[in-house]
Specification:
CATH topology of the largest domain: D-Maltodextrin-Binding Protein, domain 2
Oligomer: single chain
Number of strands: 10
Low-confidence stretches: 10-24
CATH superfamily of the largest domain: Bacterial extracellular solute-binding protein, family 7
Number of helices: 15
Bound molecules: (2S)-2-hydroxy-2-methyl-3-oxobutanoic acid
Order of helices and strands: HHEHEHEHHHEEHEHEHEEHHHEHH
Largest sheet: 10 strands, mixed
CATH class of the largest domain: Alpha Beta
Length: 346
């Protein structure tokens, strides 16, 4: 009898709690007061700006239910950008705008975008991210344990160094070049005769300043916002060998904790922010005369534009690396990418 009464009262309490819970806004049940967004660089860069635009749009579209704080400098993982994907999966990070390069150690297919000289122009990048390959890649990311929502762009990674103008693979011989976290970059620069050294972005900047490394590769928007000309990077070679897209993602559990309407708001915000971010990242590079390059030359940087024949020498030297990595990334996926690029609208 006593047990029955206890059970009954428990049931009553539980029902009351459920009813009360249902009456409360979702936020009070399981929304965090703040979500943590990881970024490699801050809002002075198109990439960080993209994160800020996303966060603002989310706040607006969810009437403040989802409140996001930016953590530039990948500070949630002590500056080690190659750990960002694992941290996202584990929930150390709630959401991120991340580079395909930094997640390549965990998701090997993302190396696709780092295949040397795969994407000859912006239309080629779009053909991949906005086409079938982009959809395949989102499925791969989903299977790897995150929720991908939209594409952004870091940009074409151009070569700079403090020593000499680079026009031929021979000019790269012996130069110590800082590269990012995927072994593909070590292979590419080794094939070109350079001396690649893998380093985080946080460690790279003091290494340029001290002269511990001679050169690096990064998009022009990173070069200007980080003022790399002030740390000796006075020689620039435009070779457009690789471009890294950015991906707007959310941790799986965080995603599941939101109402369907809020999820849709976050997705829409990411798509809009991605479009805006890509436009900012390309600014000065897609207009006639590429005004950003003139600004860079005005900083005292020697800008080397390669002739098609000169560029071809770099393509040729890296072909074996392309072939090797095509197998590692997956022949089918890479062939699909090659076909999408061939069929692109220019
Ligand atoms: O580390 C880099 O070079 C950077 C900032 O471009 C990336 O995070 C991929």
């Amino acid at each position: 009898m006593k047990i029955r009464r206890t059970l009954l009262s428990l049931a009553v309490t539980a029902t009351a709690a459920l009813t009360l819970g249902a009456a409360l806004p979702a936020q009070a049940q399981n929304y965090k007061s703040e979500y943590r967004m990881s970024l490699v660089v801050g809002t002075a860069f198109p990439w960080g700006k993209g994160g800020e635009i996303w966060a603002n749009k989310v706040k607006e579209k969810t009437q403040g239910r989802i409140n996001i704080k930016l953590y530039p400098g990948v500070s949630l993982i002590q500056g080690d950008q190659t750990r960002e994907f694992s941290a996202l999966r584990q929930g150390v990070i709630d959401m991120a705008v991340g580079s395909t390069i930094n997640w390549s150690p965990q998701v090997k297919q993302l190396n696709l975008f780092s295949l040397p000289f795969l994407m000859p122009d912006y239309a080629a990048i779009d053909a991949l991210t906005q086409g079938e390959v982009g959809k395949d890649m989102f499925k791969i990311l989903e299977n790897a344990g995150v929720v991908p929502l939209a594409w952004g762009e870091n940009g074409y990674r151009e070569l700079t160094n403090s020593k000499r103008p680079v026009r031929t693979p021979d000019d790269l011989k012996g130069l110590k070049i800082r590269v990012v976290g995927s072994p593909l970059f070590v292979d590419t620069f080794s094939a070109l005769g350079a001396n690649p050294t893998q380093m985080s972005w946080a460690d790279a900047q003091p290494a340029f300043a001290s002269g511990a490394v001679d050169g690096q590769e990064n998009p022009m928007s990173i070069f200007t916002a980080a003022k790399l000309h002030t740390v000796g990077q006075k020689n620039l070679t435009l070779w457009g060998y690789v471009a890294d897209p950015l991906v707007f993602v959310v941790n799986k559990e965080v995603w599941a904790s939101w109402t369907p309407a809020d999820r849709e708001a976050v997705r829409q915000a990411a798509i809009e922010a991605g479009k805006e971010e890509i436009a900012i990242a390309r600014k000065g590079l897609v207009e006639p005369g590429q005004p950003l390059l003139k600004d860079i030359a005005a900083l005292g940087v020697n800008v080397v534009q390669l002739s098609p024949a000169e560029r071809e020498a770099f393509v040729k030297a890296t072909r074996p690396i392309y072939a090797k990595w095509k197998g590692q990334i997956g022949n089918e996926l890479v062939s699909k990418a090659e076909k999408s690029i061939e069929a692109r609208k220019k």
